[in-house]
Design brief:
- The structure is a single chain.
- By secondary structure, the chain is mainly alpha-helical.
- The protein has a domain of about 110 residues: Up-down Bundle (AhpD-like).
- The chain contains 7 helices and no strands.
- This is Carboxymuconolactone decarboxylase family protein.
- Pfam families: CMD.
- It comes from Streptodolium elevatio.
- InterPro entries: AhpD-like, AhpD_core, CMD-like.
């Protein structure tokens, strides 16, 4: 399967993606735990059906030392016992932030307040930005039908 648009060959996309990728790197400089950041990236990508991003973020998280069990159970985090309460709050925030069109009002006060119990204001800001950035990546990849070839190499994006 070929993508509808060559994202890597487009000068327009190259300029914009450079900034999206930079935003992703800046998120790693926050005090949000790296594993939480990547769990959120994986969950939003699962919801959006973005195989490319799932390939990237599962490999990056595994490279950082995360267990295969936790990576494989992200899709079923509600039924799994391997995630902390803080991670569960972040995953719920990611789900509601990703599925905004499915529910009037977007993220509920209950979900926001639960996340706020576990994360500082700076970490919440990082979560909001992370969810926004991964959704932008997901939507672009899904729109152009970017194939997931499984060929991503850890660190490939800098």
């Amino acid at each position: 399967m070929d993508a509808r648009l060559n994202l890597f060959g487009s000068p327009v996309v190259a300029k914009i993606m450079k900034n999206f990728i930079a935003a992703g790197h800046l998120l790693r400089e926050t005090d949000l735990p790296y594993s939480t950041l990547e769990l959120v990236n994986i969950r939003a990508s699962q919801i959006n059906g973005c195989g490319v991003c799932i390939d990237i973020h599962t490999k990056e998280l595994a490279h950082a030392g995360e267990s295969a069990t936790r990576i494989n159970l992200v899709a079923t985090w509600r039924e799994s016992t391997v995630f902390t309460e803080a991670e569960r709050a972040a995953l719920e925030l990611a789900e509601q932030g990703t599925r905004m069109a499915d529910a009037a009002g977007g993220v509920t006060d209950e979900v926001w307040e639960n996340a706020a119990k576990h994360y500082s204001e700076a970490q919440l800001a990082a979560l909001v930005c992370a969810i926004s950035v991964i959704n932008a990546f997901n939507r672009g990849n899904v729109m152009v039908k970017q194939p997931a070839n499984g060929d991503y190499k850890v660190g490939q994006l800098g």
